[in-house]
Structures are given as C-alpha cells and as structure tokens.
Amino acid sequence: MKTVELIVEETEWNPGNCIPGDTIAGIRVRPEETQLQSKIKKAGGKWDREKGLWGIRYDKVLEPGIEERMMKDEDMRNLR
C-alpha cells in the first residue's frame, strides 16, 4: 500500500485567528506595574474594578508584554 499527501495551499498558522479580534480579554496586572498599565491603557484597555483586571480587545493583546498576562478561559469563568 502506498499513500500520498497532496498539499494544495500552504499558509503560516496564526493561533490568533481562533479568537475574534473584538473579543474582550482579561489581563492581570499588579498595582506597581504602572508602565504595563499605561501600555494597556494606550491600547484602549479599561480597568474593571469588579473583576480586578484590565479588559482589552484581543487583537491588542497580541502586542509584546501583554499576551502572556491574558487570563485563560477557565480563569475568567471563575471570576463570573
């Protein structure tokens, strides 16, 4: 038996395409991290006092220094 794999198109995989850009992501930032807070604020982020984290559009989360702070889905469910 012989098999063949036929590649019709090859594109770069971007995991960011899985989440719509206008989805609000939760970002956890410590109070003393004022530089990161400013960066998030400039990108349109808003402080959510009730949840204790910053909310920012997912397409802005992909900027360096912000993505690794994004809350995972299971963490966000625990906040509700």
Summary?
This protein has three helices and three strands, in the order βαββαα. By secondary structure, it is of the alpha+beta class. It has one domain.
Can you offer a commentary on this structure?
This protein is of the alpha+beta class. The protein has one domain. Helices cover 25% and strands 15% of the residues. The protein has 3 helices and 3 strands; from the N terminus they run βαββαα. It has a 3-stranded antiparallel β-sheet with strand order 1-3-2. Strand 2 and strand 3 form a beta hairpin. The longest helix has 9 residues. The N and C termini lie far apart (54 Å).
Please describe the topology of this protein.
Layout: E1 24-27, H1 34-42, E2 46-48, E3 53-57, H2 58-61, H3 73-79
Antiparallel strand pairs: 1-3, 2-3
Strand content: 15-25%
The helix tally amounts to 3
| C-alpha-based Rg, rounded | 18 Å
Distance between the termini: 54 Å
The secondary structure category is: alpha+beta
Indicate the mean pLDDT. Answer: 81
Unreliable spans = none
Overall 3D shape = elongated
Order of helices and strands: EHEEHH
Strand tally: 3
Order of adjacent strands in the largest pleated sheet: 1-3-2
Report the helical percentage: 25-40%
How many domains comprise the coordinates? Answer: 1
Largest sheet: 3 strands, antiparallel
